[in-house]
Amino acid sequence: MVLHGPNLGALGLREPEIYGRKTLQEIDEDLQAWARGRGCEIESFQSNWEGALIDRIHQARGQFDGIVINPGALTHYSIALRDALAAVPLPAVEVHLSNVHARESFRHHSVISPVVKGVIAGLGDLGYRLALEALFEACKGGGE
Ligand code: DQA
């Protein structure tokens, strides 16, 4: 499952010099095509609401093999989102389009990173595909 947090629905329009010119729909379509080529199915979901993302994470239990998540600004403060990821026994990869470490200091800290398998930041939408690739390898290898 691919989860996109607050404001990511505005990709393409939103600060394109930071987040790129692709829309979320284009990114999701590219991921779908990539996944199909690998014989995987993915479902993407975006919400500006913390609770909606948390509900999706709980619903993913037993339904998906892993989670790719760009939590947007929730990255930096949502203990509730972190707890949801910790509660569900699925490998997750945190993705950021921008290099959060090269930006404002409030973006340097992630409360999510300690409960995910890995973090990819600064590679634009390629980061999502690399994250899927990592989860795909983990599933294939029977890894956690
Ligand atoms: C982001 C980085 C966050 O700091 C920001 O709040 C976002 C997007 C990224 O993809 O680079 O909304 O997660």
Task: Summarize this entry quickly.
Keywords: Lyase. The protein is α/β, with parallel strands linked by helices.
User: DSSP helix count?
Assistant: 5
CATH architecture tag? 3-Layer(aba) Sandwich
The CATH homologous superfamily name equals Dehydroquinase, class II
The whole-angstrom Rg is 14 Å
| Number of separate structural domains | 1
**Strand-and-helix sequence, N→C?**
EHHEHEHEEH
Q: Which fold name fills CATH's third level, the topology?
A: Rossmann fold
Shape: globular
Overall average pLDDT = 95
Percent in helix: 25-40%
Describe the structure.
- The protein is an alpha/beta fold and 144 residues long.
- The chain has a single domain, classed as Rossmann fold (3-Layer(aba) Sandwich), CATH 3.40.50.
- It is built from five helices and five strands; from the N terminus they run E-H-H-E-H-E-H-E-E-H.
- The protein has helices spanning 16-19, 24-37, 50-60, 79-87, 126-140; strands at 2-4, 44-46, 67-70, 92-96, 118-121.
- The chain has a five-stranded parallel beta sheet with strand order 2-1-3-4-5, with helices on both faces.
- Strand 3, helix 4 and strand 4 form a beta-alpha-beta unit.
- Helix 3 packs parallel to helix 4.
- It is globular, with a radius of gyration of 14 Å.
- 31% of the residues are buried.
- 1,3,4-trihydroxy-5-OXO-cyclohexanecarboxylic acid (DQA) binds next to loops.
- 1,3,4-trihydroxy-5-OXO-cyclohexanecarboxylic acid is lined by residues 7, 70, 72-73, 75, 96-98, 100, 107.
